[in-house]
């Protein structure tokens, strides 16, 4: 060995080798000990999974309005079906589409996770999940739907625990009888009755494939709301069953032919103005429902915030307006939401007809809000030092190829901030976003409750990022609530028939997220938008109100979101396929629907001013109202038509016309 050799002494080298050999063994031993401890812990804190297999029917759910009257009852006639009483192809369809290695793994499938990761990386988006049926059962029975690492880790360990306690048949049986399959249906029997009007034990192969196809996305693949998409999905499930060896090629062909003939038109459902709202309640109910099943409850009583009268009126108004005005305006759908100031959901209308389509456009449709997003830009400007009377410039603007324009290319020069919002001036909104920064605008939107992904550039100011009606209305409600956070909620209490309370909402501590001074300024500017700007048709007789219109690219979406001292409401109109309406803007059909809903909601209520505003003396005879000038509701709709939009919602290039 040379004088300057870097080789370690023999004893030190031997110690390193020993450590390299022993360390993995210690790590493995620690992991085994940790998992064993968790198995014991779960056995103590969680009930035996087999106790969730009831001897009789699963509990029915009675949904009550805020006044205690019954809105709806769901379930009660839906059996818990033992696996051996179901046709074999029912479970085969689920395994083929959700977990083909179900009988080969022990709750967690590393190979499936790797395969899903590779597929998702190749596609550049999440198209395949790696969760096994056992993991899904663990989540449905015991866990929340939070997407955190800790929750995912607990899902893994709970899956191992379930596999140690139950047979594969038990796991599959519990899964089939507990999984949510859309339209308020929990379990295979409820789904069979809901979609096909028969018990699960009588399902055909084609029907089983269609129900199995719902597991990926119950709303998207619902045969009631999207029959053509549901048929395509069912054919894919049949193909997967044939590839997995569960059915023959001839059986696949015959079943596919049956699928092609099924649901040629949406199945009729009993008309009820609250059906969309009840579906939303049922989706929020899942954890308490499982607790009720575990407790052996015969039925659950769910107290909600829904206002029975207002819900019926909102549903009727939406249906009437679309039936009478929709054909001429080429608007086939509309949705509406009404919130109390504390965030309580009073009414939710997910579409013009629940009988025709059960897709809830109020809660689940993600659409571009257009200028209805501008209040968050102006709030960010106020927080940066602007005031309603601050003078801003309505002048042409071009930044890196982005050139937002006003209607007809006209510019009015200097004007107060209040006027710019009232007239929905695009150049001013864009300048404000560039001045305060898109990040600050996004931060303001997040603070008042917007959770959807947002564009990272100034095009955010013109409403290019998609949001849901429920989320956007909830964000406006923060301003209506004096700047205090007001998270939307609908379930107040869940109890069993015996009176055991499974859930009771506790009022959160008030959190001021917008300063009172800025609330007053927003009331000032949004009040001007409703009374003197693009929202004139929304004016409510005798009552002060504030709000904003919005129209997306090519007249695809039209919005009106606004509030009074009492309530906040939002209305969206458009077409499910994204096709253009006949020049419908937020200040026309949506504003008129909003006005009719709010007139009924304010019946018998004394007029009160908005915070910082003078008492109401005008609008006593307010009619629909018509702006005396053509005011740009959103340049995306009126000036550009079909200008290309990038995947993030940012406008790539604007071409002057």
| Helix percentage range | 40-55%
Mean pLDDT across every amino acid position:
82
What structural class do the secondary elements suggest?
alpha+beta
- What is the strand content? 5-15%
Largest beta-sheet details: 5 strands, mixed
Helical stretch tally: 20
CATH superfamily of the largest domain: DD-peptidase/beta-lactamase superfamily
What is the oligomer described by this structure? single chain
Query: What is the name of the CATH class of the largest domain?
Result: Alpha Beta
- In CATH, the architecture of the largest domain is 3-Layer(aba) Sandwich
Overall spatial form: globular
Measured distance between first and last alpha carbons: 83 Å
- Regions with pLDDT < 50 over 5+ consecutive residues? 1-5, 265-272, 614-657
Tally of strands: 12
Q: What's the alpha carbon Rg, rounded to whole Å?
A: 28 Å
Count structural domains. 2
Fill in the CATH topology of the largest domain.
Answer: Beta-lactamase
Short description:
With 657 residues, the protein is of the alpha+beta class.
Can you walk through the features of this model?
There is one protein chain. This protein has 657 residues and is of the alpha+beta class. It has 2 domains: 59-267, Orthogonal Bundle (Penicillin binding protein transpeptidase fold), CATH 1.10.3810; 308-638, DD-peptidase/beta-lactamase superfamily (Beta-lactamase, 3-Layer(aba) Sandwich). It is built from 20 helices and 12 strands. The protein has helices spanning 10-45, 88-98, 110-123, 133-142, 149-165, 168-178, 188-196, 205-213, 227-243, 249-261, 275-294, 308-329, 374-383, 417-422, 426-436, 438-447, 469-480, 516-531, 589-601, 635-638; strands at residues 60-64, 70-74, 299-304, 333-340, 345-349, 391-394, 413-416, 491-496, 501-504, 545-551, 557-564, 567-574. Strand 4 (333-340) and strand 5 form a beta hairpin. Helix 1 packs across helix 5 and helix 4 (133-142) crosses helix 5. The longest helix has 36 residues, at 10-45.
